[in-house]
Amino acid sequence: MLNRRNFLRTSALAASSAFVPNFLKGFENSALNLGRKKTNQKILVVVQLSGGNDGLNTIIPYRNDDYYRLRPSLSIERGELFKLTDEIGLNTSMEAFAELYDQGLVSILNSVGYPNPNRSHFRSMDIWQTGSAANQYLNTGWLGRYLDAQCTGSDCAMHTGIEVDGGLSLAMKGEEVKGIAVTRPHQLHKITSNSFYQEVAQQGTTRLQNHEEPSNVSYLYKTMIETASSAEYIHQKSKVHKSKGKYPMHQFGRHLKTIAELIAADIDTSVFYVSLSGFDTHVRQKNVQARLLKTYAEGMNAFVGDLQQYNKMDEVLIMTFSEFGRRVKQNASGGTDHGAANNLFLIGNHLQKAGIYNAPPNLLDLDKGDLKHQIDFRQVYTSVLDSWLGVDASAILGERFSGIELF
Question: From the CB of residue 115, how many other CB atoms can be counted at a distance below 10 Å?
C-alpha cells in the first residue's frame, strides 16, 4: 500500500534521477480530450539552430567583394556554392536544401533580428523564445501563450504543443498550458504505464476529487495524471504510421521522423518544436558548420518528402531560426564571434514569395561590426500567428507589430 509519505519520498528520488526530468513535461490543463479532432488544421514546426548559426556562410552574397575581403580564409568560394540568384548562393553542404528551394518550397528572409541586439546565447534565445523586446523579461513563451489562447475549459489539451527533445523550451511554456517534451513516445508511455505510476495516479485522482491535498501536492498529482493521459495518446498515435522515408541516421533525423509520423497520424497538435545544436563556431568553423548544415539540410529534405508522401504539406509550415548570426569579419581562429541579425527560413506550400524574400545584407553599414536587422523577428511571428495559425498576434505578443506578406 502506498501512503502519502512514501509517495513524496519516492517522487523526490525519481526527480533526482532521469525518471521525471528526462521524460515528463506535463500539461497544465486536462489532457482527457486529446483524442478529439482539432478545429484548426494548420501546423507549425519550429526548428531551432542553437549556438548562433553563421548566416553569411549559409546564405552567401557571393557577388559582394567585401564578403571575401572580410573573410579571406573563411569565405565560401564562388565555384563551390549553389547559386540561387545572380547575387546569392547556398552553402556547399546544403545540396538537399537546394532541392527544396528549387521546388519553390523555401522562402529565405535576410537580416532578421531586433533592436538593441543582445550577444549572449542565453539572453538572445530568451528574447526569441518569448517574443520580448531586448529590455523586457517574460516567463512565458510566444508559443506557450498561443496554446493559452486556444485553451477553453475542458478543451485545453486540444491545442497542445510537442517538443521532440529531452526538455521543454521556454518558447513552449504558457501561463496555463505547457507543451510536453518527448524523444521516444514508447519510452514515455512505458514510464507512465508502470504499476507504481498508475497507483500514484489513481490515488491522486481520488485525493484531487476530495480536495485532500495542498496546492503544491495537487499540482504534482495533476501533472502526473495529465502526463499519463498525454503519453497514452501520443503512444497510440505514434503507432498509426511508421515512416518508410529514408532519414539520415542521426538524432536530428530521428526527431524529424517522429514528428512526421505523428503529423501523418492526425495527432491533435498544432505546434512541434525541435532543435539542432552545435553552431557556436568560434574556431575552425568551416568544417564544423558544413557538417551541421548538411545534417540540417538532409533532415529537412527527408522530412518534407515524408510529409509530401502523406499529403500533409498543405497543413504544415516549417520555420527555422537561430538566436543570432555571427560577426561579419572572421576572427583569428578560423571562426566567427557572436553577431546580431541573421537569415530565417520558411518552408511550405503556401509561401507568397518563395525564393529570396528581401535584399541581401549590407556588409558596410554595420552595427558595431554586426549586420543590422531589416526585419524584426516579431514581424515574422505576427504573420505566422495571424495568417497561418489564425489567432490575434497582438494578444499573444502584447503589442501590434506590422506583419509582412508571407502567405
Answer: 11
Nearest to 279 by CA among 333, 330, 321: 321
Which helix (H) or strand (E) segment holds residue 112: the answer is strand 106-113
Sign of the dihedral defined by the CA atoms of residues 383, 94, 262, 243, in that order: positive
Q: What's the pTM?
A: 0.85
Decide: 302 and 253 in contact? Cβ < 8 Å: yes
Which residues face 108 on adjacent strands?
Answer: 345, 356
Domain 29-184+245-397 sits in which CATH superfamily? Alkaline Phosphatase, subunit A (3.40.720.10)
Element (H, E) at 163: strand 160-163
Q: Where are the domains of the chain?
A: 29-184+245-397
H helices then E strands: how many in the chain? 12, 14
The string of pLDDT tens digits covering residues 137-181 is 999 999 999 999 987 655 555 347 999 998 999 999 998 888 988
Q: What is the DSSP string of 271-332?
A: EEEEEEE----SSSHHHHHHHHHHHHHHHHHHHHHHHHHTT-GGGEEEEEEES--B-SS--T
pLDDT at 41: 81
